[in-house]
Amino acid sequence: MKRHFRVWRGDATGGRLEDFQVEVNEGEVVLDVIHRMQATQAPDLACRWNCKAGKCGSCSMEINGMPRLACMTRMSTFADGETVTITPLRTFPVIRDLVTDVSFNYEKAREMPAFAPPPNLRPGEYRMQQVDVERSQEFRKCIECFLCQNTCHVIRDHEENKRAFSGPRLFIRAAELDMHPLDARTDRKDFAQSAQGLGYCNITKCCTEVCPEHIKITDNAIIPMKERVVDNRYDPLVFLGRKIFRRRGLDEPAPPSPARQPAAVVPQTTTLDEQGRLPLSEFTFERPGAPSPYGEDVQFPLPADGISYHHPSEERPEIDQARD
Amino acid sequence: MTTTAVRPARPGARAAISARTLRRDRWWLAPLLTVTGLTAWVVYAVVRVYLHKWYWVEDHHYLTPFYSPCITDRCVPDAAHFGRVLPGWWIIPEAAFSLPFLLLFRLSCYYYRRAYYRSYWASPPACAVPDGHKRYTGETRFPLIFQNGHRYAFYAAVVISGINTFDAAIAFRGADGKVGFGLGNLILLGNVVMLWAYTISCHSCRHIMGGRLRHFSRHPLRYRLWTFISRLNTRHMELAWITLGTLAVTDFYIMAVAADWFPDLRFFN
């Protein structure tokens, strides 16, 4: 049976919704239909995908306005004759068609201080009880599809907040590490509030609604983190209790996040054809193999001065000393 | 012809989609129901609080939660279990001690925040629907930064739930001073049970009970408490609405019995 689809085609300079009549068979998902479009009508339709099993988080897009994984959206959930509209994620810059540039999320992830075990423990010596690490494990289910980041209105509707706000995916990372029984950092709550912009969240729970892994982002990560921040910053009773009973754990303020200078990107024009596009195959390419998915102008490892991440040992040299 | 992707010409430009939202389901229904439900309840509560009558059933010792504890000059002496300390000016509700704290508890509740940010403030009205505000700073500055004080409202709500429990308990005193039992007792009891369930399923309570710990294994009792509260906490939204219902029903029943619209259904005494 043929069904009507509208797919957004275009790039950063502009685009529009194009109509397609595509064959749909029983048991198919939206990603199958996109593949059929590519095979029969639009071979240059750009779409990012990988596992077709809801585990890689690549095929995030908006289907009838809702952020979803295309591989997990069954065609049978739509009414007969219903037009299915497929658009790229709105929150991130579009590269082409359904493919968006989600590097915002990776930049925010790099700013997050890494897991920091106690200084006297070496890898292989980590011991913890299941009951202690259980909460953190829920957040390890995250497949980084960035649907939560995309649907969060703090950055979806307010581009200017992207600088100050890390988003739900990074809040579950913050909660995961702050609740981790072996993480020795004590400034995570403060980092979440001052550098990640936890206070911007108004817990309207859309991140939880769209999460394909059904992580309880708001109830189990954001609200507990907000409460932990209250302990540290806003609750005079907790403050007094810690002073009177001399309890450890009144966190020192997090070091301010260093201003990030974006790495200067100089496109290597020699690898582009006269239309400014990368060559289609290696026959017309100057080197063997396919072009890099990151773009030929990106060199690895990334230049260190363009990254705002600092290894914990830089701030606390005693970690390295203790290990030696 | 097939082409491959290159870096966008204007980095940072989002897809130019003209429609503000492409959602076609009835996303407006949930905010509409929330506005209707909450507004109706608030109107009922305000009218009831400023009626200043029909709050105490003398024969069966029923006191409505909207007037508990009754602490103004106007209070019937038998209903004023905690003294009559405030003047009887009409603008002062009989329950001037409890109502402001209960209002704060519900206003700063993590569920109600979601509900009214979405429905009253449209920030956002529904997922993937634009919030329509020019600027957005969330709960980072005055006045919304005070939402962080939710746990203090929770402490007050625990005290007030205790007072409501006291009211429900003394309502078992029948007309002649012996134990009595009627439909009003059942309603008061049901209301108190639901109020406790709502109060302790609070996210702040969950945090206080054990959520703040890093090592559950060192605190087995608090871990069990946390597990119990967590289970209740998943029902926090339902309990928030159920308690609005039980409060209104309890108050209406006591108003009706006090105003002699219908008699209390007594099971004995």
Kindly describe this structure.
The complex is a heterodimer of chains A (324) and B (269). Chain A has 324 residues and is of the alpha+beta class. Chain A folds into 2 domains: 99 residues, Beta-grasp domain (Ubiquitin-like (UB roll), Roll); 221 residues, Alpha-helical ferredoxin (Fumarate Reductase Iron-sulfur Protein, Chain B, domain 2). Chain A is built from 12 helices and 7 strands. In chain A, strands 2-1-5-3-4 form a 5-stranded mixed β-sheet. In chain A, strands 6-7 form a two-stranded antiparallel sheet. Chain A is globular and about 70 Å long. A two-stranded antiparallel ribbon of chain B has the order 1-2. Chain B has a two-stranded antiparallel sheet with strand order 3-4. Chain B has one domain. Chain B is 47% helix and 3% strand. The mean pLDDT of chain B is 92. With 269 residues, chain B is mainly alpha-helical. The N and C termini of chain B lie far apart (90 Å). In chain B, helix 6 packs antiparallel against helix 7. Chains A and B meet through strand 1, strand 2, strand 6, strand 7 and helix 3 of A and helix 3 and helix 6 of B.
Side by side, the strands of the main sheet of chain B go 1-2
Note the beta-strand portion of chain B. under 5%
Shape by Cα distribution of chain B: globular
Biggest sheet of chain B, open or closed, and with what strands and sense?
A: 2 strands, antiparallel
Helix-strand makeup class of chain A: alpha+beta
Rg of chain B over CA atoms, rounded to whole Å, is 24 Å
What's the CATH architecture of the largest domain in chain A?
Orthogonal Bundle
The CATH class of the largest domain in chain A: Mainly Alpha
Count the E strands of chain A: 7
- The computed structural class of chain B is mainly alpha
Helix tally of chain B?
Answer: 8
CATH topology of the largest domain in chain A: Fumarate Reductase Iron-sulfur Protein, Chain B, domain 2
Give the ordered list of helices and strands of chain B.
HEEHHHEHHHHE
State the helicity of chain A in percent bands.
25-40%
